[in-house]
């Protein structure tokens, strides 16, 4: 768990530096807007706007949306590591039911896949490839995390701390997808 916290702090620090310096402005034709505007366009409810502001900040200065996507992606991956370790801990707990342990193991695989899809998407965006495959990969990540939440609901009910973590991860992944959609033409 300590390793995940260190990775999370380092990732969030790098994200803050990138956002503060505008270090990701590189793609011709990518929209520019403030963090506030990006959160407004990517969010479907006040809770999502608050989550977005916590990830991206509230700067009124316009920046390339690509930077916001990377910030959200880095934040998601850091949180996924923490949730993965939490699922592993529950999976190994002798007090966990067989169904809950199996759900946690499946969730760990879904988190691995979601993280991989985000990394692939980030690689494409770093080369300014804004193809629909990025949207598909990020949607796959959202679906995997949502599937995990459903597995945990069926195995242990709706009030477990791990399931609450996973639901927040799902919302964060949806927010990342919505931010990426601001970049991606709808040609699929």
From TrEMBL:
InterPro entries in the record: Invertase/methylesterase_inhib
Highest rank taxon of the organism: Eukaryota
Signal peptide: 1-26
Keyword field contains Signal: yes
Cytoplasm keyword on record: no
SUPFAM superfamilies, per the entry: Plant invertase/pectin methylesterase inhibitor
Keyword list, A-Z: Signal
Protein name per the record: Pectinesterase inhibitor domain-containing protein
Organism: Oryza nivara (Indian wild rice)
